[in-house]
Design brief:
Low-confidence stretches: 1-19
Radius of gyration: 18 Å
Strand order of the largest sheet: 1-2-3
Order of helices and strands: EEEHHHEEH
Helix content: 40-55%
Number of strands: 5
Shape: globular
Largest sheet: 3 strands, antiparallel
Distance between the termini: 39 Å
Oligomer: single chain
Strand content: 15-25%
Number of helices: 4
């Protein structure tokens, strides 16, 4: 419904832990969406989720990108690509009233965040089991 879930390999494990320690691993997920008949993909990452949540909180995408020192144009383009691929709006942008997440936007970000947490827990459990062998 939302796209294809892809596990990105940004996680790291401290190689100096002994078999009685727990490893710290932090994998991050990426959601990729096909953009119609083009070979490009729209991508939802934790950075885009973070700026969208902040835009909803502040009521301004511009203020949110400034807060995180991100490029406004680049972020706006990434959001537009996502909306185009999904065929619905995730952010309401009204120039005089600011920006806020749509109901579908909230649902998409909630899904992403749940998948992120489950992926991190699964990876940590897997690594910790291997360390105890």
């Amino acid at each position: 419904m939302f796209g294809r879930l892809k596990l990105a390999s940004y996680g790291t494990v401290n190689p100096l832990v002994d078999s009685k320690s727990s490893a710290v691993i932090s994998p991050y997920i990426t959601l990729e969406f096909d953009c119609g008949n083009t070979p490009s993909k729209a991508v939802l990452t934790s950075n885009i989720v973070m700026v969208l949540r902040k835009a909803d909180e502040l009521g301004s995408l511009h203020a949110a990108t400034k807060y995180f020192h991100m490029g406004y144009s680049h972020t706006l383009y990434a959001i537009a690509e996502l909306e185009n691929a999904l065929d619905y709006s995730i952010l309401d942008r009204v120039h005089s009233k600011g920006s806020s997440l749509t109901a579908a936007g909230h649902e998409l970000l909630d899904l992403f965040e749940k998948a992120q947490v489950k992926t991190q827990k699964y990876a940590a459990n897997l690594v910790n089991k291997e360390l105890k062998k």
